[in-house]
Design brief:
By secondary structure, this protein is mostly helical. Helix content is about 85%, strand content about 0%. The chain is built from five helices and no strands. The longest helix is centred in the C-terminal third of the chain and has 40 residues. It is extended, with a radius of gyration of 21 Å. The chain starts with a helix and ends with a helix.
Length: about 120
Amino acid sequence: MKVLRGLAWLLVFQCLGEALSRTGRLPVPGPVIGLLLMFAGLFLPVVCEPVAACAEALLAHLSLLFIPVGVGVMTHLALLQQSGLRLMAVIVLSTWAGLGVSAWTLHALRDREGADA
């Protein structure tokens, strides 16, 4: 029963975030607002305990969430064969670009912090 209460809390925060985003015409997506609201709600035991139980249950069955991805790959196998190397190159290059930008930012911030001291 605690798992269902936790799932209900997750859905409540999701709906609240969507409602605030749409009614306030905010440039932030509803799920992000809902996530921030849930983070604030996790400081309350009435929210934290059921959400923790729900999270444990969902994590126990996390592998089931990969089934749709596998089916998608199987249904688009011809497309993957046609442009698989290009997709792989884009994935590898974008990963390295993200890592490089993150490392450069960290390095720049650390140098700036050392200069301020």
